[in-house]
Amino acid sequence: MDVRVSLDESIEAHRTASLVGFRDRTVLRDALAMTVAKSEEEKERFEECFDMFFRVEGLDGAEGEAGNDPDGESEPGGTPPPSGAETEDAQSLADLLLSQDRAAIAAAMAAAANAVEVSNVRLFTQRGVFTRRIMEQMGLRELDQEIRALNGGDGDDQARARALEAARARLMEEVRDLVERQIALYADPASERLREDFLANARLNNIPPRDFARVRRLVQRMAKRLASRHARRRYDARSGRLDVRRTIRLNVSYDGVPFRLAWRYTRIDRPRIITICDVSGSVAAAAQFLLLFLYSLNEVLSDLRAFAFSSHLEEVTETLDNEDWDDAVPSILEKIGFRPTDYGQVLLDIEADYMDLIDRQTTVVILGDARNNNGEARTELMQKIFERAKRVIWLNPEPKPFWGTGDSEMLRYQPYCNMVRVCSTVKDLERVVDDLLTASSRLA
């Protein structure tokens, strides 16, 4: 009871403080933390969000809290929000910048941000738009006109123009920082979703290295969804768990008397997969993301063997199992990748060393563009793999119109595949693996 009374008093004190201007922001933070944040993680996120919301930086980069002026008078939300007209009547932007009054500049920035409704920012791509709007609301056009006029004057005017240009550049940086904080506060989830949606549908070869970490997280989330969807399946059985709904339906003709019982049980069906990935320069990016996708499906893949090739075939299962992903992929590419592709030699390597791994329980997944540098295609060996395997799936990162052109042997290999798909994006990978797992489920 004492805790509830104390909490109510804190909340009422917070309300009173908010009405008079958040004079003691610590009370506000503590009251909100007591009512909003429960776990340690939530407390950390709350404190970060609280500080981000109230923080305003001065022009010299030093941090301060708007609204905490020496006299202790401020408006709710941090800085006093004078209107644009009041600011212009009292002091021009040029005079304000030259005065180096950080509190007044911060107040003008806050007022301009409120006027352009910067809290409506939703995408990281809007940073430049809102930065320009805030600057114009503060009087950027008049400032630029004054700078141009001063540049045509005498030495004192030109010195003032240089000082204004330097102050303008600093102000621009501060406004940009203000907008970026607003993006982090209001738009980060939407911005992140937009970026991830773009990356999920972008060609894997075009994804810049700076986004590899984001794509890996995206691939792992997709794999987790597929694992939860396919890990457990129910089957009819002669005994086990009673399927009430089917039992009722089966006995409708008997007026509901359960003469016929329906049973079900759950089992995990894990297909065996062999992946053979072309790691030559043109398809290396697609290969590494396919391997990541498959290795993220550990829950539903009982036996995965991974091979990589360009001029020859080598198994990389142990490398991927024992090394960190960031180290394993560069190691594989350095050792095997970026050489002239020879699909004929790869098929000979499979026949000589790994054909015993392929049986009627094995799905063979080949990722490559089938460009053979005008070498021997060895289609008879592709036919042999097709006859031994349960399923052969070929994923080609090239568009279909390119198949069979130049040194592409795709049209010659296609008859010996159960499925041939264009696979050039993360979304394509998700659909292919989903289809693979769906086809692998079978009745008990």
| Unreliable residue stretches | 1-22, 56-89
Mind telling me the CATH superfamily name of the largest domain?
Answer: von Willebrand factor, type A domain
The total count of strands amounts to: 11
> Count of helical segments?
18
Q: Class by helix and strand content?
A: alpha/beta
Helix content: 40-55%
| Gyration radius from CA atoms, angstroms | 33 Å
- Average pLDDT for all residues: 76
- Net shape: flat
N-to-C span: 60 Å
Tell me the major beta sheet.
6 strands, mixed
Count of spatially separate domains: 3
If you had to describe this structure to a student in words, what would you say it looks like?
With 444 residues, the chain is α/β, with parallel strands linked by helices. It has three domains: 37-201, no CATH class; 220-230 and 271-439, 3-Layer(aba) Sandwich (Rossmann fold); 233-267, no CATH class. It has helices at 2-20, 25-36, 40-54, 84-90, 93-99, 102-115, 127-138, 140-151, 155-201, 212-230, 244-250, 284-295, 317-322, 325-336, 343-354, 379-388, 410-413, 426-440, and strands at 55-57, 63-65, 233-237, 241-242, 263-267, 272-278, 303-309, 313-315, 362-367, 391-396, 419-422. Strands 8-7-6-9-10-11 form a six-stranded mixed beta sheet. The protein has a three-stranded antiparallel beta sheet with strand order 3-5-4. A two-stranded antiparallel ribbon has the order 1-2. Strand 7 and strand 8 (313-315) form a beta hairpin. It is flat and about 90 Å long.
What would the keywords be for this entry?
55% helix; 444 residues; three-stranded antiparallel sheet; 3 domains; alpha/beta; six-stranded mixed sheet; Rossmann fold; 18 helices
